[in-house]
Amino acid sequence: MDLVKSILEENEGKEDLSKSIKVHKNVELDIDLGTLLASDYNVFNTKALKPKPNSYLKDLTRDNVQLLINKIWELSVERVDEAIVAKLPKPNYTLPRSRVIPKPKPLTKWQQFAKEKGIRSKKKGRSKLKWDEELKKWIPTYGYKRVKAQEQKEWLIEAKGDANSIDDPFAKAKTAKQERQSKNELQRLRNIAKSKNIKLPRVGLPTREHFSSSQQLSEALTIARTSTSSIGKFQSRLPKEKDAKGIAKEVTGMKRKRKAPPLNVVEEKRQNKNLVDSVLKSNTKIVRDDYSTGIAEIKQSTTSGSKKRKGALKTSKTAKKPKAGKGKRDLHKKVGGRKRR
């Protein structure tokens, strides 16, 4: 008792921190209970706001919330599961949304079919576990533990009469499961593309509608071959298949092939000799460069395999041009010039 008296004596001098639920306002608040919105049109007290703005705003917020709660308690209330619930009226204000209203998610093919046929899913209320008579225990209907339980059940597979003795039935079952999973994943991606209005290529060979040029087809072929973890290093190529031009920039991890540097002096000489031979074997040869005009006279050289025609006339640069007889023509003498008829 002495301890209780001492505590009460200590609290006698302290102020009562609890405030009254009655709040006075010069201008009554505009309260919309449907949206729990309270609009205060009273003027701020600048004298109390400037020295202690935080405490003033805190007290003002507390008074406005108290008035809103007082209005809520004036409504009809009821007790639901050890909680007092008040039924709010229809809102008077339409509050703006910060984001656009989300569009309804389009239905998949199965959901649309189930809706038309009136098929209802039975997932709600279904237990995750089910009793297995063969294992004599509860096993989950999905998850990794279900896979383990399935392996315990199917530890032995009966071979069919026409089955090959070399084939592994467990490997066949695993491959069939992977194919089903791939089919389901493909159908899921198709549903996503259909909901976003994305045009998918037809099954089979690509058409001109999807690859209008050979360059696009080559790029698609290169991207498909390099879509492995090794960037197509261990993928087989088609006969005379080459990488598409400029595809190294689009495919991450793919680098342009560079020629290795020469290993020794002999190898370097051989590369330089091949380069010079390729230049000299070209059909165009520069005969003369006119540096004053900047024009180069280019002459086409004949190939080594071509043969000259027999009996072709050869004209020398020193041959004189024939002159006429200037009207004095002697028929007995042979004079150079154009023969008149």
From TrEMBL:
Coiled coil: none annotated. One of its GO terms (biological process) is ribosome biogenesis. The keyword Lipid metabolism does not apply. It comes from the Eukaryota. Residues 232-275, 291-341 are annotated as: Disordered. One of its GO terms (cellular component) is nucleus. Residues 238-248 have a biased composition (Basic and acidic residues). InterPro entries: Ribosom_reg. Residues 306-341 have a biased composition (Basic residues). Keywords: Nucleus, Ribosome biogenesis. It holds the Pfam family RRS1. It is found in: Nucleus. Belongs to the RRS1 family. Involved in ribosomal large subunit assembly. This is Ribosome biogenesis regulatory protein. The gene is 105626754.
